[in-house]
User: Which sequence fits this backbone?
């Protein structure tokens, strides 16, 4: 077989592999979202009316937060490997630090807007419980992930 016949096959297999990984990532995200919804619903003890108003607002917030963290922060972290940091100029480091600070501020402003949007829907005590429940859920998820991941020796 010549290269002209092999190359399209390799590209097809590679693109299929990326698609499969993307689909697997979407499935995992949806599984985590379902677990999170169940956990928060239980912890917050929302009324039906509160739930109907809460979840659309929360889902928009959560999607935007996920987008910011996974797109921007992942790009930053890929530029912060040990080798990259050791060879980075001070100018590039300052630029990266500014970008990270901007993203952190964007996340903070997103959270602030979310709380402002949710105040008419939930009483203050439930908003505080939400904050605690999110932290508890993330801690529980991290704990499960650590226990499931095989340890490297």
Assistant:
């Amino acid at each position: 077989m010549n290269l002209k016949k092999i190359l399209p096959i390799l590209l097809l297999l590679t693109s299929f592999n990326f698609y499969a990984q993307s689909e697997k990532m979407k499935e995992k995200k949806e599984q985590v979202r379902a677990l999170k919804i169940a956990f928060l619903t239980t912890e917050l003890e929302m009324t039906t009316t509160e739930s109907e108003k809460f979840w659309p607002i929360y889902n928009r917030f959560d999607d935007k937060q996920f987008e910011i963290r996974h797109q921007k922060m992942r790009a930053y972290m890929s530029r912060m490997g040990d080798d990259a940091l050791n060879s980075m100029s001070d100018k590039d480091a300052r630029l990266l630090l500014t970008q990270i600070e901007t993203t952190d501020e964007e996340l903070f402003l997103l959270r602030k807007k979310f709380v402002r949007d949710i105040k008419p829907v939930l009483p203050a005590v439930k908003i505080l419980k939400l904050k605690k429940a999110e932290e508890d859920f993330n801690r529980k998820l991290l704990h499960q992930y650590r226990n499931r991941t095989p340890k490297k020796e």
